[in-house]
Amino acid sequence: MFRKQECVAMLLAGGQGSRLGVLTKNLAKPAVPYGGKYRIIDFPLSNCVNSGIETVGVLTQYQPMVLNEYIGTGQPWDLDTMHGGVHVLPPYQRSRGADWYKGTANAIYQNIPFIERYDPDYVLVLSGDHIYKMDYSKMIAEHQKNNADCTIAVLEVPMEEASRFGILNTNPDNSIYEFDEKPKVPKSNLASMGIYVFNWNKLRRYLEADEADKKSSNDFGKNVLPAMLADGQRMFAYRFEGYWKDVGTIDSLWEANMDLLNPKVDLDLGDPAWRIYARTPVLPPHYIGENALVQNSLITEGANVLGTVDFSVLFADTMIEEGAVVRDSIVMPGAKIKKGAVVQYAIIGEDTVVEEGAVFGERPEEAENLDAWGVAVAGANLVIGAGAKVPAKAMVEKDVKGAEK
Amino acid sequence: MRGNNVLGIVFSNMHDEYLKELTAVRTLGSIPFGGRYRLIDFALSNMVNSGITKVGVITKSNYQSLMDHLGSGKAWNLSRKRQGLYILPPFGQGNDIYSDRIQALEGIMPFLNHSNEEYVLLSDCDLVLNFDIDAMMEAHMASGADITIAYKYGIKPERRNDVIVMDLDDTDRVTNIEIDPQRTQACCFGLNIYLMRRDFLKMAISSARSKSATSFVRDVVQSRVLKNRIYGYGVKEHASIIDSVASYFSANMDLLKPEVRAELFERSRPIYTKVRDDMPTRYGLGSSVKNSLIADGCVIEGEVENSILFRGVHVGKGCKVKNCIIGQNSVLGVNSQLAYVITDKDVILKGGRTLMGFETYPVFIGKEAVV
Predict the structure, then answer these.
(1) Residue B163 in contact with residue B179, Cβ under 8 Å?
(2) Which residues contact B169 (CB under 8 A, 6 or more apart)?
(3) In 3-state terms, what secondary structure has residue A82?
(4) Inter-chain contact A36–B35, Cβ cutoff 8 Å?
């Protein structure tokens, strides 16, 4: 017997996030580490429980192992409940064939039986690609007030950047009259955040119609939402104010981490009223050594800092040896920066070792060609050899040999 | 594979009186330690790491904070359908709360009777120690002992009046036990960790009670030296006994030594504690931190040296914090200066305050105090 849930959240977590390169080689984008002790998926999951949503389906497809293991029973997010809770939903085989998730809409379509068990009034569709704190219950309340069929969360972006986003054109009452995907000449600056609330009975009908349409690419943005709008369904924009960042690229991931060091950025992860929960390793407090220099940084449990750390984010169990310098960088769990090594404008993947005297990344002020400059990235479980020099914007996938003596 | 046929018993209130300042509002077991732990975490983690799946925690008074800390036992992997964590509140006849260890054990007789484990491991919460109980178990089996007592070789703790000093033969068999003797040189002193068969414990307790005995060390342990096979198990790992504010201070400060951290936070035997979901600690512009152990959720804008900061501490701009232990969620206002200070939880220091203690006499600021 399943207890009725007013709202079921469906979290699209199957994307590869190919623009994150080596960081998503062996794990799905929502599992990418962020902010010292989190993974991206902690944000939508924590938002759900903080908003009172206790039934969450996580749709996985690309490299699900790390994500599955991370979500586990859902205990860190209080989602190991008797009714509902978090469920990982991979694509599956049926008596008549098997399909991967063909698109975002198809992923939900294939899990109609999962949603039906809870007989929800609303389905909240989320993605696992964004860093933000949002009370979904307010969005659902507005959805109810508008007597809407579909509500889409939007964020005001600067007009000059609007052409990078999916833009919604709205009437004064926030009802939507047009979708404008990456418009050259935007009419509005309301960008879709990829967060949708649907009346489940309506959504179900449109998913079935979309599935029957062989020409459809089974995508919410391209197919389902335009079809609903064309039929004159009541669609509204929900204006969100606050911090929201797509961390789909190396630069945006790096910036989103650095935003945590900026007191002017409106993203407080320490707010006891809206905690971001995470599965944390069992490690002692971090240690700062006698000769260490630490400023403007975020450091978490299990880290050992004996060198210099400035404008950086250090994850659990990292080691910064004496004389090593880490500046403007992100050092992911278990990574080691050995004596005298320099890491600057870089992201060092999980458990990677930067050997003595290696220089990883470059400062923009030292770059010869600023257009070719960018954050350097090392994947997971690599060794950057002693004395090696890795240039700006490098995407290191294999071990790097040390410098010849 | 889990399970080793040993039942764990933890005494959460034993020795409360030695740390009156810190136990005014809690049990000895729930005294905060090392930035993110409570003392009971060491006893529980040692047991769990050795494969013990059933632990009874004996409580006596002020155990609200302890229950809050332990919850269902999930953090120690002790929230389970079979076995798990059992909190054992005082269970006396009439209005009596137990006053000694024998009474306390008698009070949990039903729990001892209903357990199936063949062995019992007793431990207190005054020890900061990460040791391999499996090795103690092996020694116990190999020697065929009736009781095995974990001991440490060194200078015995000063303030204990129930500490036992043992003479051992070359097979580690205990030949003589003295209770709190005058001893200034190194000796083998007991750590109040006892391993024996459950049946043996039950027999020893009822026999002691029938003689109206009140002292566990005298009437159960010492009196059996000749009658039974009592063996010692030498603990080689780093161990601190917390029996005064000064020893609490120095045991915390020991964590700043890399070799102590390596032994105490040995990778294969993690020390578990309640998860608090704080954000990582943020270091501000102009912060300076040297030789310190810092938990999550802190915001540091001043100077910190040779100190331990618990979770959620705020060190304001211009602060100078030296040789201090700053309790959870304490706020140190701008330009405060502190040396050799221990603050309990939730202490607020208004700006510009100066507090100085001394290494052997640290200043203690009680829970929720505003200075």
Answers:
(1) yes
(2) B175
(3) coil
(4) no
Confidence of residue B3 (pLDDT cuts 50, 70, 90): low
Q: Quote the Cα angle for A297-B346-A35, to 5°.
A: 25
ipTM: 0.90
**CB-CB neighbors (< 8 A) of A278 in chain B:** 277
Chosen for mutation from B37, B130, B253, B294 (greatest number of chain A CBs closer than 10 Å) is B294
Q: What is the mean pLDDT of chain B?
A: 91
CA distance B267 to chain A (A): 9
Residue B209 in tokens: 């009670």
pLDDT tens per residue across span A281-326: 999 999 999 999 999 999 999 999 999 999 999 999 999 999 999 9
Chain B residues in contact with A295 by the CB 8 A cut-off are: 283-287
- Chain B positions in Cβ-Cβ contact with residue A76 (cut-off 8 Å): 275, 277
Please state, in angstroms and as integers, the Cα–Cα distance from residue A302 to each residue in A37, A283, B76, B294, following that order: 11, 5, 18, 10
**DSSP SS3 for B256:** helix
| d(C-alpha A261, C-alpha A257), whole Å | 8
Question: In chain A, whose CA is at the least distance from the CA of B36?
Answer: A285
String of DSSP letters for A119-169: --SEEEEEESSEEE---HHHHHHHHHHTT-SEEEEEEE--GGGGGGSEEEE
Q: Chain-wide mean pLDDT for chain A?
A: 94
Model confidence, pTM: 0.92
**Which of B159, B179, B169 is closest to B220 using CA atoms?**
B179
**Which chain A residue is nearest to residue B309, measuring alpha carbons?**
A285
B34/B39 Cα distance (integer angstroms): 9
Chain A nearest-CA residue for B256: A287
Question: Which residue of A43, A259, A279, A286 is the best one to mutate when testing the B interface, meaning the one whose CB has the most B CBs within 10 A?
Answer: A286
